[in-house]
Amino acid sequence: MHLVEAVLFLMALVIVSNVLSHYIVAVPVSLIQVALGLGAALFFHLEINLATDWFMLLFIAPLLFYDGRNFPRRELWELRGPIIGNAIFLVFVTMLV
């Protein structure tokens, strides 16, 4: 798939994820986007060769910024225990993998 077609396809997936996020309120937009991206990679064999630092800069950082910016502070404070627990757990999972 050519790069322009892949970029247009990914932009369409972002629009679809935005529409789906209005109907599936319990799931964060970033998880919907990751699921759609995984589906695109598996079913449509979408492959974009990208260095990991560019991937973090172009995809992960904006998703994390958006979720962090729009998350309610009170709810974040109430969920500090599970958040810290998941962070520690994921560090160990990353080390094992």
TrEMBL record:
Compartments (UniProt record): Membrane
Which Pfam family, any one, appears in the UniProt record? Na_H_Exchanger
Task: Tell me where the transmembrane regions lie.
Answer: 42-65, 77-96
Statement: the UniProt record of this protein carries the keyword Coiled coil: no
Q: Name one GO biological process term.
A: proton transmembrane transport
Query: What is the predominant subcellular site recorded for this chain?
Result: membrane
What is the protein's membrane topology class? Answer: Multi-pass membrane protein
**Any one GO cellular component localisation term in the record:** membrane
Q: Write out the entry's keywords from A to Z.
A: Membrane, Transmembrane, Transmembrane helix
State if Transmembrane helix is listed as a keyword: yes
Please name the InterPro entries in this protein's record.
Answer: Cation/H_exchanger_TM
Know the name of this protein?
A: Sodium, potassium, lithium and rubidium/H(+) antiporter
Q: What is the lineage of its organism?
A: Bacteria, Bacillati, Bacillota, Bacilli, Lactobacillales
